[in-house]
Here is the input.
Amino acid sequence: MALTFTDEAKRKIATLRSRYPDPQAACLPVLHLAQDEFGYISDEAVGLVADAIGVPHSHVWGVVTFYTMYHQHPTGKHTLMVCTNVSCMLRGGYEVLEAIEKKLGCKRGENSADGEFTIVEEECLAACADAPAMISGERYFLRLTPELAMRALEDIKKMPPDHGHQPPSTIAKARKS
Ligand code: FES
Here is the structure.
């Protein structure tokens, strides 16, 4: 079945478009809306967003592939964005990331088999003073250690999903981004 925005999403897109004289400026918020609606930004969703705001598909594609917050494949209920850039690396970011990978049985860029988590390695989360840092949903987890990361996973499981998510059978087949 062809992908389509709900009527409510269409209303929100019209509102977003009216806020910006340049339709390209609406690209980021409309992509967020699309990700909430569909769970991830597929090729079809790229076209849908481009047509909805009246910009070239290539522009939307460029935005989606530039920002790691947009997912191009089905994700778990919770995305774990783990920073390994310099400040975090120096303070144990890789140890945190590897502990999470070991616990969940999947690597960065992959989904856990139970469909709960997707691990994303991040460049910087703007929390360098409190490294190592991770974001899940809208929540920061700071000054992590491998042990604190394990506790964070338990907390995150109790949080609502980040956005619309796919059935577990679809998630398990998701490939690395
Ligand atoms: S280097 Fe990790 S938050 Fe900036």
